[in-house]
Write a structure and sequence with these properties.
Blueprint lengths: L11 H17 L6 E4 L8 E3 L1 H9 L5 E4 L9 E6 L9 E4 L2 E6 L8 E3 L4 H13 L8 E2 L7 E6 L3 E6 L12 E2 L4 E7 L11 E4 L3 E4 L11 E4 L5
Parallel strand pairs: 3-13, 6-7
Antiparallel strand pairs: 1-2, 1-15, 4-10, 4-12, 5-6, 5-11, 7-8, 9-10, 13-14, 14-15
Length: about 230
């Protein structure tokens, strides 16, 4: 693989970044395999094999854009329903992802109804099933399909986490509500747009080189390679 050429139009900062990248490419030419680490927003790295294959993105590519900074992988908004105590009353409601769910002692059935089934834990279990359209429709709830915008995830005896189906800031506009006694919603993860990039876009910060085969505002396709250590 060839190193990247420098010219007089580049700023000193970009020239320094190109020098750093060229050092990585030179090292990569002497290797047969490396490890690529995905950008992880939880602090836990996930590794995929053969960073050598990532370097081939550069080999026959012209017009590479080198940008100083750290690209973002898209993050989906998540919101948590908490009902601290008590059993939802018959007719009380929860709205999330644009759809209203009504807790019922007995299903009538009407679209959006969720069976309370005698306890808070059972009611939340059925609410999760209704949002995801799992469990037993017609028995646990009355919904014709899964929620179009969110998926229900982690469930405890008093809480239920819902995550927006599309990553990015789009989910931040959701306004969940509930009139269940002792119930409330809170945003637990704020949605973040991904940094748009392509095969010809490279980001560099003080610790990592970032590459992607293509990323949009709703995708998480950026990968990083440590630049401070030899491979």
């Amino acid at each position: 693989m060839n190193t990247i050429s420098k010219d007089s139009s580049m700023s000193p900062t970009i020239i320094a970044l190109v020098d750093q990248l060229n050092a990585i490419i030179t090292a990569a030419n002497n290797l047969t395999s490396e490890i690529v680490t995905t950008v992880d927003n939880t602090g836990t790295d996930s590794q995929i094999p053969s960073a050598k294959s990532v370097y081939t993105l550069f080999e026959n590519t012209t017009g590479i854009t080198i940008i100083s900074g750290t690209p973002a992988n898209a993050v989906a908004m998540a919101e948590t329903l908490t009902i601290t105590s008590g059993t939802p009353a018959d007719g009380s409601t929860v709205k999330v992802g644009g759809k209203t769910y009504t807790f019922k002692t007995t299903l009538t059935p009407t679209e959006g109804e969720v069976k309370i089934n005698g306890s808070l834990s059972a009611a939340l279990t059925n609410l999760k099933a209704a949002i995801n359209h799992t469990g037993t429709p017609g028995t646990d709830y009355s919904c014709s399909a899964a929620n179009a915008n969110v998926a229900a995830g982690t469930l405890t005896g008093t809480t239920l986490v819902c995550t927006w189906n599309v990553k990015g800031v789009i989910g931040n506009s959701d306004s969940p509500t509930t009139n269940v006694t002792n119930g409330s919603w809170a945003t637990t993860i704020t949605g973040v747009n991904g940094t748009v990039g392509s095969l010809t876009t490279i980001y560099l910060d003080t610790s990592y080189l970032y590459v992607t085969s293509g990323n949009t505002i709703s995708q998480s396709n950026w990968y990083r390679l440590a630049t401070s250590n030899s491979f």
